Amino acid sequence: MDYRGPYRVRATEKPHPVIEHPEDCIVRVTRSCICGSDLHLYHGLVPDTRVGSTFGHEFIGIVEEIGSEVQKLKVGDHVLVPFNISCGRCAFCKQELYGNCHESNPEATAVGGIFGYSHTAGGFNGGQAEYVRVPFADVGPTVIPPDMDPDDALLLTDVVPTAYQACEMGGIKKGDTVVIFGAGPIGIMAAKCAWLFGPSRVIVIDHIDYRLEFVRNYAPCEAYSFKEMDDVVEFVKKTTDWFGADVCIDAVGCEASGDGWQTLTGRKLLIQAGSATALHWAINSVKKGGIVSIVGVYGPTGNIIPIGNVVNKGITIRANQASVKRLLPRLIEHVQSGRLNPKGIITHRIPLEDVADGYRIFSEKMDNCIKTVLIPPSAKR
């Protein structure tokens, strides 16, 4: 695919990627996804998203070529590729903070390299393509177990690890009440993963009816529309005996609806790094001494948030890009045991040639779309 500007993507012919470093490999993509985070790019909200970029940080495929120093992969391996690009050697990778690799992104004062996610994340082409160059091939790509459905493996590149780490960062304990803001793919999967930690209640808040119905059935959990509430924070407080939730998860990020002022300043005028509505709700809904976990995407500039409430309530805030490589062994076990069913959130399969339609359907929430898989022509051979 080819990015031509906000709300404009198309399928086009591009040069075949080549080995640029002896630790690279070339992967022939068999499946890729459109992520909610890709919509931030599509909508023009991520700085330095350049015309001609190829998006896509969720993909699996067949290793077609390996660099001279690659030792752990061989041609023909079917691999899932974490969305993080990590060197495996820097100080942060050694702490298993693979999303914060200091060598994969020239802008790595914060985030490490990410496939197909603008030049603020390294400028790498992504996997919504037939072929992709994968740096540090001995670090990230993981051979898919022979008994694993490729669709499940595809969701292990981002959605499941991000959702699971959101719950992990929340420190969910037995008996806790967990409130998740957002019923997109990450919020839905976070609701499913939350139960692995033993809470007594899992509550999801959104405003799209079909998504709320989906998460009720998939997780299962309580799910409510904020359109039916006079005040979201008051609702959460009331349903928790006025204490607040033990853990709140922001699974929305910079395009949250629900507050006109936040929408105006964060999504229309762009004078803050996106609409921080969900983050406000999370901070104000969590109990004193509670934990707010943030996996929704915000830009590199500032947001207007109630930091005084964070201090006075003694809240812990934890946030990061998921360290996919660290989590994969545990998550593969959860999938193989049947505790998690990632492929259950896939609702649409679209040929890569029709990528523009795929983005429009997902962006406009048409046809009850939850998660879209793109199938490249080369995968049909």
Question: In words, what does this structure look like?
Answer:
- It is a single chain.
- With 381 residues, the chain is of the alpha/beta class.
- The protein has 2 domains: 2-158 and 325-380, Quinone Oxidoreductase, Chain A, domain 1 (Alpha-Beta Complex); 159-319, NAD(P)-binding Rossmann-like Domain (Rossmann fold), CATH 3.40.50.
- Helices cover 27% and strands 21% of the residues.
- It has 12 helices and 17 strands.
- The chain has helices spanning 36-42, 91-94, 150-155, 159-169, 185-194, 209-218, 232-239, 260-268, 277-285, 307-313, 324-337, 355-363, and strands at residues 2-5, 8-10, 25-34, 59-66, 78-81, 84-85, 113-114, 131-134, 142-143, 177-181, 201-206, 222-225, 245-250, 286-294, 316-319, 348-351, 372-375.
- Strands 3, 4, 5, 8, 9, 16 and 17 form a 7-stranded mixed beta sheet that branches. Strands 12-11-10-13-14-15 form a 6-stranded parallel beta sheet, sandwiched between helices. The chain has a two-stranded antiparallel sheet with strand order 1-2.
- β11 (201-206), α6 (209-218) and β12 (222-225) form a beta-alpha-beta unit.
- The two termini are 19 Å apart.
- The mean pLDDT is 95.
Reported for the largest beta sheet, the result is: 7 strands, mixed
Query: What global shape is seen?
Result: globular
Number of domains: 2
Number of helices: 12
Mean pLDDT across the residues is 95
Instruction: Spell out the CATH superfamily of the largest domain.
Output: Medium-chain alcohol dehydrogenases, catalytic domain
Text of the CATH class of the largest domain: Alpha Beta
Cα gyration radius (Å): 20 Å
State the CATH topology of the largest domain: Quinone Oxidoreductase, Chain A, domain 1
Strand residue percentage: 15-25%
Q: Which class do the helix and strand fractions yield?
A: alpha/beta
Question: What's the helix-strand series?
Answer: EEEHEEEHEEEHHEHEHEHEHHEHEHEHE
Tally the beta strands. Answer: 17
Low-confidence stretches: none
Q: What percentage of residues falls in helices of 4 or more residues?
A: 25-40%
